[in-house]
Each structure stands twice: as C-alpha cells, then as structure tokens.
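Good morning,

Attaching, inline, the backbone tokens for the sequence recovery test we're adding to the shared suite. The designed sequence is right after.
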C-alpha cells in the first residue's frame, strides 16, 4: 500500500509499505479522506511537533475516514463496507486517573495518538491506503454523512470539547479569536450549542468569510479594527501569544476565556495583566474525550462543515497539500487529502 511518510524536515515521501492485516479486536480500514492538521505541517517543516521529535520515518495524519475492509478475530457490531471515522487516541497503560479528572481520558499522562512522534516507536497516522485500528476506535458514520465529512469529525470534536469547557452558551455573546479551521469549527459548535451572538476575528479576509459561512453573526478584521469589548465568553483559537493581551482586554470582567489554540512550548512575551484585574477565568482545552461521537451526531442533524474545506489534493500531491496548509498568510481553510487513489 502507499502511505504519506515524513522522513525529516522538508522530506516527505509516498512510500510503499506492506498491506496491514487486522489482529484480534482490530479492523482494517480502507482510507478515503484525511484532513491536514497543524501538527502534520510541523512534522513536515521542522521534523517535530511541540516536544515530540522525529527519530525515524512516520506516517502522518490523525483526521481520517474510510470504509471497513476486513474484521479481525472476535470483532462484532461492524461489517465490511461500513463507512467510519477513527478516534485517534489510545491511553497507554492501565493507571487510573485521579478522582478529580476521572473520565477525562485526554488528560492521561501517556496517550498514543495517530501520527505522533511522542513515543518510541512512533505512532503511525492514517494517511495511507489502509490502516489497522482497534475496533473500539472505529466510529460508524451516520446515514447521510460522507467519508469526506467524516474526516472532519476529529477537529469538530476538538471544537465541541472547547465549547463544553466554556459552560452554558445559550443566549450568550461569544468571541472566537482566530478563524482558521479550528476557530471556524468553534464558531459552528458555539452556534450549534445555542450561543446568542457569535463574533469571529482574524487577520485574513478569506478566513473571516469561512467563519461567516460557519455561522458567525459578525466578523472583525483585526488588522484594521479592534476586538469587541466586554464579551462574556471568548475562545482564543489563534495560538499567538502576541494576541493574548488584546483578547484578555476583550473579555468581560468576570468573563471566561477558553484557550483552544496551541500556545508555544517555549517562552514567549505576552501581556497578561488583565487576567488579574478583570478576574477572568482562563481555561485550557486539549483535544477531546468522546466528543467525536457528538460531532458525528451534529453532522447527522444538519451541521454543515463543508465551508471549512478550501482545498482537496490527491495523495500523490501530499507535499503540495502540506505546503498550501502551511501558508498562514494565504488564509486558507482545511486542506484534505484523497487517500484512495482517486482525484
């Protein structure tokens, strides 16, 4: 089979690998679509994502969907041909979580994630023609949800988890700073969860257009105008430390700020004084728990995620696709890869 493999910074290849065979409790998925995430771009550009560094070649991709091709021994409740997406996380070991975070499996100290170099050996992702997954990680797509949409279930789950971290949104005013793919999906998730008014802010006009298509009532081009004032609930989705001062000033006194954009793992200057003087509750949001199921239900119920997609490439053009996804100045949305050989 063919797979999109990163060998080092700027070294991406379409490699031939043996066709995998599912073992007990596993299923073989014939992949159809994959979405490119910022971590994929980081491995491609730098050979690392956060503190995880490549030490040997690795298949990229954790936003994937396809169809079950074969079942391993003992698997029930699934059948060949069934379209599925994949929950890409698998906690390592059986150490229970402390009572204070019981059930929050995204906070396990050790989690293997598709397309991650955090462990040795690395965890291959799903940008390949076939991938074996544990049966409990396969999530059947609801009727009417195509595999192209299913590849967006993982980032939508990230957005839904962030929205849930904020608490009740019904009727409340929401600001989303950063309208890249995650920010645009946070807009959609906030609207889906009953937010009264949703404002999206970004530097790039194309991203603001996507945010409007995903349900934003108002957009702000922060290269030309300031953020709104006294917003009850703010989602920071840009991950830019330089934006934090303005975002904190935009948050109402006593308001809530949810940090969903990944901040750098190295020291970076940021103006944080308003956090104290405005008594803001600043909440982190990391990946998701089981919100991938909620994402699929939301799509089944009519949440249209297609406006967030800006480009589609064949697997053979993966290097071009990653280069496009890596260009923040262009303001592009989600870039998808077709993984089954079709164009």
């Amino acid at each position: 089979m063919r797979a999109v493999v990163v060998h080092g910074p700027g070294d991406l290849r379409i490699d031939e690998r043996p066709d995998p065979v599912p073992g007990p409790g596993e299923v073989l998925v014939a992949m159809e679509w994959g979405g490119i995430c910022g971590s994929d771009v980081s491995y491609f550009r730098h050979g690392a994502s956060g503190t995880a560094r490549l030490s040997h070649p690795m298949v990229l991709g954790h936003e994937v969907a396809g169809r079950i091709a074969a079942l391993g021994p003992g698997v029930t409740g699934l059948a060949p041909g069934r379209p599925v997406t994949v929950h890409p996380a698998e906690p390592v070991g059986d150490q229970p979580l402390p009572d204070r975070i019981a059930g929050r499996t995204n906070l396990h100290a050790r989690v293997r994630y598709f397309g991650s170099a955090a462990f040795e050996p690395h965890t291959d992702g799903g940008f390949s023609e076939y991938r074996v997954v544990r049966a409990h990680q396969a999530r059947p797509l609801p009727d009417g949800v195509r595999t192209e949409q299913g590849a967006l279930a993982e980032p939508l789950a990230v957005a839904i988890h962030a929205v849930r971290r904020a608490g009740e949104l019904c009727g409340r005013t929401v600001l989303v700073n950063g309208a890249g793919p995650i920010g645009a999906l946070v807009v959609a998730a906030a609207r889906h969860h009953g937010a009264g008014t949703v404002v999206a802010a970004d530097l790039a006009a194309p991203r603001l257009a996507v945010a409007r298509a995903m349900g934003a009532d108002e957009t702000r081009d922060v290269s030309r105008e300031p953020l709104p004032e006294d917003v009850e609930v703010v989602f920071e989705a840009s991950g830019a430390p330089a934006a934090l001062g303005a975002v904190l000033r935009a948050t109402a006194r006593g308001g809530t700020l949810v940090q969903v954009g990944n901040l750098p793992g190295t020291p970076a200057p940021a103006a944080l004084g308003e956090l104290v003087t405005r008594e803001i509750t600043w909440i982190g949001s990391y990946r998701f728990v089981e919100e991938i199921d909620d994402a699929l239900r939301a799509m089944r119920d009519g949440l249209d995620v297609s406006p967030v997609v800006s480009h589609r490439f064949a697997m053979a053009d993966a290097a071009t696709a990653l280069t496009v996804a890596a260009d923040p100045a262009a303001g592009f949305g989600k870039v998808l890869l077709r993984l089954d050989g079709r164009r």
